[in-house]
Amino acid sequence: MKIIIYLAFVLAAVTCNETNEQSLDKDKEECIVELSLERDEMAKLDKLDLPPDSNTDFNKLVECISKKKGLMTPNGEIIFPELKELYLEVSKVKNLSKIVQYSYEIFISQILSRCEKQIIDDAEPGKNMILVQRCISNEFENVKRLLPSS
Q1: With left for phi above 0 and alpha for psi between -120 and 50, is residue 84 left, alpha or beta?
Q2: What CATH number matches the domain at 2-146, 1.10.238.20, 1.10.340.30, 1.20.1250.20, 3.30.1240.10?
């Protein structure tokens, strides 16, 4: 059973940053145009593994994309069940055995429960999403450090 949990954590760590890029790119482009943002600056910040939460324009972009992806309500609240589904959609996860997929789902639920506490300011929904994503990324990194190196 321990090996199954390790396998779930390894797969989670490897796939945590994978998303549906085509859809995200379309949403990102629409938001940049809608918000009249500087495309090159937003692209530069977007490429960072852990972008800053202090850039107001980037926070607005994250908020816009999150709403378009259905991860945030119109009033800026993060919809954690939808965020969980996004992490569970990763194609590699769908091909796992039931027990590994179940372990991965529990792991994601635990991470999101911890990261939900990162929300600090209702007035800045984009910043909140960045803080939650940073928390998720840090949780995956913590798991990677605990795994035996090969």
Answers
A1: alpha
A2: 1.10.238.20
